[in-house]
Design a protein that fits this description.
7-stranded mixed sheet, single chain, 13 strands, 2 domains, two-stranded parallel sheet, Alkaline Phosphatase, subunit A
Length: 553
């Protein structure tokens, strides 16, 4: 070992470029090659040779770029940096089915220390050591032999020209085969390692710098036009994390994951609800935006009014209680409490807290609500956030066994992983039901509870784990989320709502999405604004008596 450490290797630049391109093109691009091999179908001799030549040109982009940028003094730092980074991205793409685009870079930029720690596993360390760190050490111990400037320039220009000619021939001759393949797999470039995260990072930086920073006031005339009653309005919104509707008993899942909510009165569960995004950084701001998924711009969102601003304008007291990884700038202008910082709570365990920490102090807040002091409370849960699903619930909720008691979910069986995830849903059921039961104690309140998850989760279906896959190709497990509303008897009475109609409508309504939340909340809270759209208010069809603004559009 010591003898090897003292050994110095030597390599000429043409070989270095070639070996580096081959290493990046094949060893660090296994995820890309796996998708290409899986999705490419050989039907005749023409398609066979197209596929064969495909492996020839895969390393070409690296070969061309390396011949351009790898010059004296910066060759080793550049190669070492990208060897290390690409070994990490290669692991996540291959192991968890991750795609790397601009939105994934945003997720990385907003990832907390706790989330990062959850993703660090021994498997990852071994892969990065073998494919990234050891090649870096080998590179650092290698002397690179350069030719004269003239010879280097001529040699590199010749190699670049040859690659371009061969690539042009390949694309031209096999265009009829390549065009439909590229069209049907238009996100495959998100897995072409190194170039994917370099391009995505550049796009992310460009997009962030293009944002128009002046704050936008969307409506200066927001006001409340309430029904006449003697109750005090209290609305609690439970913002779920990584919960998919597929594992909710309320939506037909055969397991008993909602034993408490299924017994609650006045529950409405909307089916086939699609999220605005597949990651928290996009979905949370979108949920509180009036734009809807089609027109939403996550970079502009912090610089314009959201739903919470409208509640404040209408005279509501707004309180955000946080147990996840922040509100993604949604709650910057309202009172915010980070309950996950409570080091003395029996529900907190160092880097994380169970969601019951959000119940601590909630009764005190409700006890202090004054007569006619309209109050909107947001409870941002950590819910079913992975990969450390086993840390999301207390031991007494370990109902489905055996479980996956590690963040290295690839080391768990499909049964263990599903059991652990379902236990998080079981705990969510308990948490939401506990909030409902607490509100029932306040007979003077016109109270409501809304539960909506930010996005879903993949549990290994088709080799994909976690979330964050580009929306256009994301599996339904990441897009379909639970949307549950509980209305007190006082709400049904004072707001002239027909519960049977609501129940039936929730079963018939199709294509519900996060877009509906904004307008449903405005209607439920009797907030009049020009941005309100009655067709997106899920309660409006079942109002026996509508306020004037609810009759518009």
């Amino acid at each position: 070992m010591l003898k090897w450490l003292k050994t110095t290797f030597q390599i000429k630049t043409p070989k270095l470029m070639l070996f580096s391109a081959l290493y990046f093109g094949f060893i660090l691009n296994i995820a890309f090659l796996k998708i290409a091999i899986t999705n490419y179908h050989i039907t005749d001799i023409y398609s066979f040779f197209c596929f064969l030549f495909f492996f020839l040109v895969v390393p070409f982009p690296y070969y061309i770029i390396f011949n351009i940028v790898l010059i004296k003094k910066i060759t080793k730092p550049i190669l070492a940096l990208f060897l290390f980074l690409s070994s990490i991205t290669n692991y996540f793409m291959l192991s968890l089915g991750v795609y790397i685009n601009k939105d994934m870079i945003r997720n990385v930029m907003e990832t907390s220390v706790r989330e990062t720690t959850d993703l660090l596993t021994w498997r990852m360390f071994v892969v990065v050591l073998l494919t990234g760190i050891l090649p870096c050490l080998l590179l650092l111990k290698t002397k690179i032999v350069y030719k004269s400037f003239k010879n280097e320039l001529f040699g590199r220009s010749s190699r670049i020209f040859a690659c371009i000619v061969i690539s042009a021939f390949y694309v031209t001759f096999f265009y009829k085969e390549l065009a439909p393949f590229a069209r049907n797999n238009n996100k495959i470039d998100y897995t072409y390692n190194t170039l994917n995260y370099v391009v995505a990072t550049a796009k992310y930086i460009k997009k962030v710098n293009q944002v128009n920073h002046p704050f936008s006031i969307l409506d200066k005339s927001v006001h409340e036009t309430p029904y006449k009653d003697d109750f005090t309005d209290v609305v609690i919104f439970i913002l779920g994390e990584t919960a998919r509707s597929a594992d909710f008993e309320l939506y037909g899942y055969p397991r008993e994951t909602n034993p408490l909510l299924s017994k609650q009165n006045n529950i409405i569960a909307y089916s086939n609800v699609s999220s605005c995004g597949t990651a928290t950084s996009t979905s949370v701001p979108c949920i509180f935006s009036n734009k809807g998924r089609a027109n939403f711009n996550v970079d502009n969102a912090p610089y314009e009014e959201n739903l919470l601003d409208f509640f404040k304008k209408a005279g509501w007291k707004v309180i955000w209680r946080e147990n996840d990884e922040g509100c993604k700038k949604v709650c910057e202008r309202v009172a915010t409490e980070f309950v996950s910082n409570n080091l003395t709570s029996p529900n907190c365990f160092g880097s994380y807290c169970h969601d019951e920490v959000l119940l601590e102090g909630l009764k005190g807040i409700l006890d202090n609500v004054k007569y006619k002091e309209k109050t909107f409370i947001i409870l941002h849960t950590i819910g079913s956030h992975g990969p450390a699903y086993y840390q999301r619930y207390p031991k007494q909720f370990r109902k489905f066994t055996p479980t996956c008691d590690t963040a290295d979910i690839k080391n768990c069986s499909a049964e263990e992983l599903r059991n652990t995830y379902d236990n998080t849903i079981l705990y969510t059921d308990y948490f939401v039901s506990s909030v409902i039961d607490l509100l029932k104690e306040y007979k003077q309140f016109e109270s409501s509870v809304i539960y909506l998850s930010d996005h879903g989760e993949s549990l290994g279906e088709n080799g994909v784990y976690l979330h964050g896959v580009p929306y256009s190709i994301a599996p339904k497990e990441q897009r379909e989320v639970p949307f549950i509303i509980w209305l007190s008897d006082n709400v049904l009475q004072a707001d002239h709502l027909d519960y049977n109609c609501l129940k039936n409508f929730s079963k018939l309504q199709r294509n519900v999405s996060h877009d509906y939340f904004y307008h449903t909340m405005l209607g439920l809270s009797e907030i009049d604004t020009k941005l309100y759209k009655s067709q997106y208010d899920l309660l409006n069809k079942c109002r026996i008596k509508k306020l004037d603004f609810m009759k518009r559009n």
